[in-house]
Design brief:
Distance between the termini: 39 Å
Number of strands: 11
Shape: globular
Order of helices and strands: HHEEEEEEEEEEEH
Largest sheet: 11 strands, antiparallel
Number of domains: 1
Strand content: over 45%
Radius of gyration: 19 Å
Number of helices: 3
Length: about 220
């Protein structure tokens, strides 16, 4: 985990140095002219999956989200090395469990993006697909047959410095203000319709802190 964090901190600066070298030689800066790297501390969210035979809900926590997007097309990749799931099965409470997934990989296409409020907020919409694999339950090994595949559409609002290139660790920080998803999900071979919502962990605690102040 420490090596991943160090890599994510160094990578934007290395690529920016490479682009600056090209510009100094009279060439265009390739990478940051074409790609946008973003990262966040993580997300907290709530999902609801339903079918004729029953439904389930889960609260989840993602830690260290990293993404890269092609600027012109809106196509992007996302990765998180660690997710905690708190599963609740309404039809069979004996199936309730907590699990951890270590391979959380997604692709997306932002069909449209609108940047506003002094270039600090971005509204986006588009299709996505995501796989969560390498699940560890309350046992001593990874259950290799367990997986979660989700595909659908998402609408979200992201805070960050969208008017400049993410050429260092501070410029590349972004926060999910709110992100809603709807689509289709397969959980270990079982098919569900699915809706979900999530927000950045930092945003979540800021809201809690603000609520506590208003209560006082």
């Amino acid at each position: 985990m420490k090596k991943l964090i160090i890599l994510f901190i160094i990578l934007p600066n290395f690529l920016y140095a490479f682009d600056s070298f090209n510009v100094s030689r009279g060439h265009s800066g390739y990478f940051f002219d074409n790609y946008d790297i973003r990262w966040s501390v993580g997300d907290i969210g709530y999902d609801y999956s339903f079918q004729n035979n029953g439904d389930n809900t889960e609260i989840f926590y993602d830690y260290l989200n990293v993404g890269i997007k092609h600027r012109n097309t809106g196509l992007g990749l996302e990765f998180s090395p660690f997710r905690i799931w708190d599963w609740k099965y309404n039809s069979n409470v004996s199936l309730n469990k907590t699990s951890y997934s270590f391979l959380n990989f997604g692709v997306y296409w932002n069909i449209f993006e609108i940047i506003f409020v002094n270039d600090s907020l971005k509204l986006f919409f588009g299709p996505f697909s995501r796989i969560n694999y390498m699940h560890y339950h309350n046992r001593n090994s990874i259950i290799w047959s367990n997986y979660v595949f989700t595909s659908g559409f998402r609408l979200g609002l992201v805070a960050g410095q969208h008017d400049i290139y993410a050429n260092n660790i501070f410029n590349s920080i972004s926060m999910n203000v709110v992100n809603g998803e709807v689509g289709y999900r397969i959980v270990n071979g079982e098919s569900y319709f699915y809706v979900g919502v999530k927000t950045d962990i930092i945003m979540f605690f800021l809201l809690l802190f603000g609520s506590a102040i208003n209560t006082d």
